[in-house]
Specification:
globular, 5 strands, five-stranded antiparallel β-sheet, about 70 residues
Length: about 70
């Protein structure tokens, strides 16, 4: 199992924006390269925003993240 196997097109992932407390939350993977490396750029999107991030900035969604996203 690879380090970034949880990053798949369409998956929901958690991203903490280091520059803004407003962009934390659950995002859907919108675009990924064929092979994900440390310096790959992953496009993620939510209903209100999108961002290009490195794989190391993403984490699998936990139950806690989903509950916070619902409120």
């Amino acid at each position: 199992m690879g380090k970034y196997d949880f990053i798949k097109l369409g998956n929901l992932l958690y991203w903490h924006d280091p520059d803004s407390g407003l962009s934390n939350g659950v995002y859907q993977v919108a675009s990924i390269p064929e092979n994900i490396e440390e310096d790959s750029v992953i496009l993620i999107a939510s209903d209100t925003s999108e961002a290009e991030v490195f794989p190391s900035e993403l984490s699998p969604v936990s139950y806690t993240h989903l509950r916070a996203h619902e409120t």
